[in-house]
Structures are given as C-alpha cells and as structure tokens.
C-alpha cells in the first residue's frame, strides 16, 4: 500500500518538475515582456496543480507557499494586478522558492526560508486594490458588467479565496441579469460522447479559450448512487460566451462532440437566463458544480464568486462527480495525449531492438547470396530499421529539459557574484536522445558556472573595458548532421593564455619549454588539476573542474571545443552524438583486428599509389590528394598494434574531423558497411581514448568503434588522461 | 568484504579457484557465471592485465588477467582456463583463472587477517581461510588448503585506474 503511495507520490514529483519547467518558461516570457493571458494562465495552472498535489500528500509548507504564490498569480490573471517588471521579479523569486520547496518536499533539499518572499507577495497583493480597478476596466469590455458596482475592498477580500465557494455565492451571480447579448450555450454530452473520449472538460476549456465561462451545471438528471451508470453522462452545462464571438467559432468547439449530444447556442435575453434553478439543484448534492471564469470577477455582485480559474472550479465538480460517477473522466483529463513510460522499459526495448538488428545481420550473414536477395529478407531488414528508428525517436527529447535549470542558476550566480548576467537561449527545441540530455546536465552546469565566474568580468571591469556593464551568456543548441552542438559562450574577458601557460608549467602539466599553439593552450584548462582562479570561489571551486566536463563529454562519444578571443569572450562547445545507441559504420581492419569507423566522418577511400604517401618528418606523413596534402595517421601506431603492412597494400580512408579538418587514416582493408549498436566501454570499464565504444558484430564477436576526433587530435602528450602510458 | 564481520553474518559461500599454485576465493554472491576461455577482443591503450573485452549476452565486459593484476606471473592459457564473470560494485568483469576448484561454506570466525604487505595499493586480500580439500579419490585431505579471499571492491578496475592516473 505504501509502495503504491510512493509511486503516486513519485508521479506527483514528476509532475512538479514539469510544472516548474512550464512555470519558469512562462515567467521568463513575462520577464521578456510577453504578458499575454495565455502565458499567465499557464504559470497559474502549473503552480496551482503543484499546490493541489502537495496538499494531497500533506506537504504543508509547499502547499502554503504555493497557495500564496497562486493568489498573486490569480490576481495577475484576473487583471487585478498589472504584471509590471517589479511584480514579475517577485514572481520569479517566488518561483525559485517554490522550486526549493518542491525539493524539500522531495527530500532532496533543505526547507527554504520563504519569509522574505512571502512578505513581498503580501505587498504585491496589498497593492492590488488600486491596480485592480484600473486593470479591471479593459477586461470589462467582454461581458460588460458595471465595474463601478464592485468596490475594490470587497474584491480584495474575495481575491484571497480560490476555493470553497458556498452555495449562496452562486445564487447571487445566477440571479443577476446576464449581460446583454451574450451567447448562452447549453451543452449536454451524450453517452456516446463519453464513450468516444469526448472529454467535456476539454470542450469547456475550448469554450473558455474564446472568453467563455460556465454559468451553471444542470445535474438534475443525475440518478441515485444505486442507479448510476458510471459510463453515462448526466450533466448539462450552461455556458456563457461573450456576445461579440462569432457563432461559428463557438460551434467549432463542439465539432468533435457526437451529434446525439445536446448543443444549443442561443443569444441570451435581457432577463436572467435559466441557470438559477440549476444552482438550486446543486444544493442537493452538496457540492458546487458551477464553474466561474475570471470574467465573472467583474460581475458587480458584491458576493461575486472568487477569481479562481474556471479550471479550478470545474475540477472539484469533476472530482466530486467522479466519486459518484465516472472516475475515468478525471483521469482522461490528465492523461490527454501522452502516456508516462518508465525509462527502464524504454531502455529494455531499445536493447531488444539492438539485439534484433544484430540477429538480423547474423541471419543475413548465414544465408546464401541467392537467399539474401529474396524479398523477405530486405523486407525484414526494412521493418527492423523502422522499429529501430521509432524506438530511438521515443527517447528523443527537446534539449530544453537540460536548459531549463540554467535561468535559475544564473539568477543565483548573479546574486553570488554581483555581476549582471543576461541569458540568451536558442535552439532549445533541438531533439536529443534522453541519455544525452541526462548526461550533459553536469557539464552544462559547470560550463555556465565557469562562464559566469571566470569568463565574465565585474561590472566595473566591463565599463573600464568599454563594454556594457551587463555580461551576456549565450546558450545554444543545434543539430548538424549526426551531431549536436551545445555551446555556452560569454562576452567576457577571454582566456588569458599567458596566465594559463604559466600555471600549466607551474603545475608541471607541460614542460617549461613547451611550444604550444593557442588552441593547445586553451585545451590546457581542461587538464586535470588545472585551475587559474586566483581565489577558489564558492562558485567554480566545487570539485568539478573543466577536466571533468571534458571527460564527461568524451564519455558520451563527443568532444569539447574551446575558442576564445582575448577581451571579447570565450565559447565552449560540446559536440555530441545525436544518439547514444546506433551508428552507421564502416567495418575496417587494423592489424587484422576489426574496428568500426563512423561513416558520418568518411569522405572517401584511396588505394595509395607508390609515392603518393610522403614523409614530412620521421613520424608524420601526408598523402597527395589531387594536389593537396592531407596528413596521414596510422591508427595502428596510435594503438600500439603491430603492423608491418606496406602502405601500398593498405587503404587510406579520408575522414573529415571537426578539430583537424581532413585527415587520412591508414587501414588494412574495408570489410563492410553496416549499422551497429553502440555499447559503451565505460559501463563496465572506463572510456578509452581513441575509442567511442564497442559493438557486437553479426557473429557475436566484438569490434571496437574508433573515435575519429580523438584519433586525429594532437598527440596525447599534454593530456595525461586515462592510461596512455 | 571486511574480515571483522560479526558472527551473526557467519556462514557464507565462496568459490575457490587457482592461479598458479595459489588458491583464491571470492564470494559466491559476486559470481555471475563461469565461462570457457574465449580469446577476447584486445583493447588499445590499456594496462597489459586487461586482456580485452568480450560479449556477455549483449554486454561488453572487460576480461582481466587476474594473476597479472595481482602481481603474479601471467596465466598461460590451457584447456581448463576459464573466465569467472563477477559483479564488482555494479560493473561486470571477467577474470581469467587457471582452474575453478570448488564451492565451500566458511564461517566468519574462520577467516584470519592477511599479513600487511607493502604494496602500492590497498591490499586486495581480505583474509585467509583454511579449507578442507577433497583429494581425487574423495577422501579428505587433513592438511587442507589456504585460500586467499579476494576483496573485489579493492580489485575494482576503475579504482585501480584512478590510482594509476
């Protein structure tokens, strides 16, 4: 039983995470000036559902804070508080505290001190009365009530109470004359509507998106508990829509409702419409089935229903009904279009598909050439590939998930360092394998910290250097071919190469007389044990160095690029594989052993003529490629394999590398070309420089996957990493 | 795997195997399977005790020359050479051993501490224990054999590599 509870609680926390992400996006948009009703409502919903869940699980601190936060959002939503930059700032810091509360409830963080923020929220709420009247006026354009009748003081009083509407409250608005000329829509979903997942809540929300609201719900058809058919529909809603909305737009909302449902759209009379008796009916059931949209807040009745969102009031109704009626309806509202799948299951599926691919090629290997041409086999291969592609796409997630924690981090960093930092984010919709997203979190965090702490100068220094006092950190992601480029760049001081070199010599990382290119010096900051920070700050002295960033990125089969212009800034780019699992590869032999060369790097293959490969020094060679000299690397030498094959008996595969441009790799022969499933070496061992992993070939044997970038990069002498000894 | 476990944790089963003339033991619970020797795929740029990687039902696992890893003469492959696949702190590895001998139960009280030795790393020998051995004809060998109990966590490959780096 408690296991079940834990499970449900785990789902709640997952939803919290999603809710926080949504809220943060919304708040960031508001900060950037987009204060549309949609954005505000999104933030409100997110905070609201966190509060709801927290209440259910007894996280009182979280509930209390979320409640207060929600009140402010509610007022903003209702137009009672203008979302000025000041208010948005309070909301952002409230958001931070809310995240901390969630972490505390989850047991992953201490309980935050929210007193100061609560005071700020109170202040915002207290100032509302004045703003309220002003902001209320434009909203009044819709249902056209008399704003004068609503004393600000009373609105205040009710603005704090988002739930717990007493029945009396409902008689009042219902008995008020409806605004002239509004649409009145009667909507009674049929049994067939429910059977076809025609979720009434979604339809009503659709109506709400047109500015509509729920006038009342007729529950008179609801039978006693004994006769209740939980798959049938008993409610008839009376909805109001502002008069200026076109009838066809309202009708569109009901497009997917089966024709046997009640859908009547009429112009309201001046006199009170029908809902009043319905409200009385509601009394019988002891719950409040009437939803009130925020527009109702402007209804002059002094006892106007609180500004609680329609969503809020509809949900209790659904929940209450669910206890008696159809429980799956509430569930359906939540589940909408997606399902949650345990990542473990997805990974298992991925592994199985990987095995399927392997078995497929074993089968192909074992069949005679004639049989291989038969229709069934290519068809099977095609299907397998489709399954594989689809399973892979299941794991693809927008990189936004990894980026979402950056704004918060920068706000904290900004406070800690006293530097003003602007964040520009691009490409957050780029889709990347879930595994990549999970693993770039830490490197990304450190790169951001590094940029904020070391990259950007203090405001005074920046002004002295003739720059704007605010530093900018750009975070971008883009896909190029089979690789994802995730870049963190700042417009700070750039890498001080003299200091880096001096430090590296001091630390014994390089010999004192080493001649290094700028790129090599830049790479030194990733050497283990290297830190140029004059004082180890709270921010980047936390035991995660740039060497960890680099090794994390390399463990993912990627690499870290650094570029820096003194005085203008530094950028760190993680070049990552799109997927961690499948690779289009060329099977080559080195000293007889099979290796996989990622096909995405391969440009062409050459059978060298005598004299085409020339030595430029005792241990470097070039190949003459139609007049241009391309450096040649012997992987066998890099790997210490015995190979006395003459160059003329070998093949040179010209590969395109990010770091060294075109390079020729000497291989014995090329066996095959196929898709391979990447198995990481560090799962059971550790990453090995020069290898991107291993794969299992059709015959069950293992071939190692070459990491072109690491192979062609400058020799490993300055990067005493791993076992190259 | 510490030697001063209290008596309540008493009986445990160990797998004994030989490397050269020595007999070693590891906890049964760490053992995944025993496989025949099959030449692994060699890896570049690794210490010589890592013989390469092999395919364990879709998992790529390293194969370690255990004798070499422990500082003894490297094992010579012969007909009874086999690979003990073990789980060390969640990672899987295969150990090349000369011969697998037996599975025996030992009590915690029977384990004696291993003498301190001067090595570059923490001792991989968790303790010594004497076990009765069966002679070929089934009779008991009164003298028994000394088994060196291995501390698998100390043998962890990545840990060793960290030390080397």
Secondary structure topology:
The complex is a heterodimer of chains A (725) and B (165).
Chain A: H1 2-31, H2 37-56, H3 60-77, H4 85-106, H5 115-126, H6 128-139, H7 152-159, H8 167-175, E1 183-188, H9 191-195, H10 200-209, E2 213-218, E3 236-241, H11 247-253, E4 262-267, H12 275-285, H13 310-324, H14 327-335, H15 343-366, H16 369-372, H17 376-395, E5 396-398, H18 400-403, H19 406-417, E6 421-426, E7 431-433, H20 434-455, H21 459-464, E8 471-480, E9 483-490, H22 497-506, H23 518-524, H24 546-555, E10 559-565, E11 569-577, E12 582-590, E13 593-598, E14 602-606, E15 613-617, E16 620-625, E17 628-634, H25 635-638, E18 651-657, E19 661-667, E20 669-677, E21 691-696, E22 702-706, H26 708-712
Parallel strand pairs in A: 6-8, 13-22, 17-19
Antiparallel strand pairs in A: 1-3, 1-4, 2-3, 5-7, 8-9, 9-11, 10-11, 12-13, 12-20, 14-18, 15-16, 16-17, 18-19, 21-22
Helix pairs in contact in A: 1-2, 1-4, 2-3, 3-4, 3-5, 4-5, 6-7, 8-12, 13-14, 15-17, 19-20, 20-24, 22-23
Chain B: E1 12-19, E2 22-27, E3 31-36, E4 50-56, E5 59-65, H1 66-69, E6 82-88, E7 91-97, E8 99-106, E9 125-134, E10 140-150, H2 152-155, H3 157-164
Parallel strand pairs in B: 2-10, 5-7
Antiparallel strand pairs in B: 1-2, 1-8, 3-6, 4-5, 6-7, 9-10
